[in-house]
Amino acid sequence: MTQDTVSVPNKLSRLNELLTSMRRVAVAFSGGTDSALLAAAAARCLGKNAVAVTAYSPTLAMEEQEDAARIAAGIGIRHILLRADELAEEGFRRNGPDRCFHCKKLRFGVLSEWAAQNDIAWIIEGSNVDDVGDYRPGMKAIAAMDNVRSPLLEAGFTKNEIRSLSKDWGLPTWDKPSAACLASRVEYGRPITPDNLKQIEEAERIVRQYAAGQVRVRHHGLIARIEAEVSQFAKLADPEVAADISQKLKTLGFSFVTLDLTGYRMGSLNETL
């Protein structure tokens, strides 16, 4: 029997068994759809023996950090903010195709130290079945750590099933757009710095004033490449809107501002690999 033929109630039963067997867990918590469902399930199974931990650094937009705190409060799980500065890691700063490996290794290393100090044996994170086929070097770092597990993946949940169950449970994240750290917007080979991360955060805040749905500003040095959903092209191409966005992004340090006519797609920088 494949995971596709297993019912969601059976997968949920398996998830509950996994969580209960771990006794005390720290949830690697971004506030996204996957980690929110995992945190909610852990809180239901383990109560006060489950804690959500958000690792923050310049790669996490302040809006995402604040959102994570609000979502954790709504779930009713204790929430911890833990500093984890990937920019201290040379392998991350140089921004090669293995950037996410160095990021996850550092983040989960910091989280492991915190968990050990607080007598928590297991760290759990929200990877699911759909993540397996994507280019995700960070999963290699997670797989190498004996105290980190991926219960949603182990139970066989797909992304659509996670969204559906989240909706059933009344979680506000059930239809939350997928997100990624700010570093994922910087073209491979261009060093990651606090300055270009701040440029991206501010640029996306500006573009989101005019475009709904998924928005990314990819950093190509002097070029800001805007990705948005195709349905938003007409708004962004309006002469007054385009001029306003262009002028504001140029004040951030970009010389050229472009709209990618292919539209938003996850991990578009991987297309160059």
What share of residues are in beta strands? 5-15%
- Largest sheet geometry: 5 strands, parallel
What is the CA-CA span between the terminal residues? 35 Å
Secondary-structure-based class equals alpha/beta
Low-confidence stretches: none
Largest beta sheet: what is the strand line-up? Answer: 3-2-1-4-5
Mean pLDDT across every amino acid position = 93
- In percent, how helical is the residue content? 40-55%
Report the C-alpha radius of gyration, rounded. Answer: 19 Å
Overall 3D shape: globular
Number of helices: 11
Total DSSP E strands: 8
H/E order of the elements?
HEHEHEHHEHEHHHEEHHE
What are the main properties of this structure?
single chain, about 270 residues, alpha/beta, 3-stranded mixed β-sheet, 8 strands
Short description:
This protein has 273 residues and is an alpha/beta fold. It has helices spanning 8-22, 33-46, 62-75, 90-93, 99-117, 138-143, 151-155, 159-168, 194-207, 233-237, 239-251; strands at residues 25-28, 50-56, 78-83, 122-124, 148-149, 215-220, 223-228, 256-259. Helix 6 links the parallel strand 4 (122-124) and strand 5 (148-149).
Describe the structure.
The protein is α/β, with parallel strands linked by helices and 273 residues long. The protein contains 11 helices and 8 strands. The strands form 2 sheets. It has a 5-stranded parallel beta sheet, sandwiched between helices. The protein has a 3-stranded mixed beta sheet with strand order 6-7-8. A hairpin with a 2-residue loop joins strand 6 and strand 7. The model has no long low-confidence stretch (mean pLDDT 93).
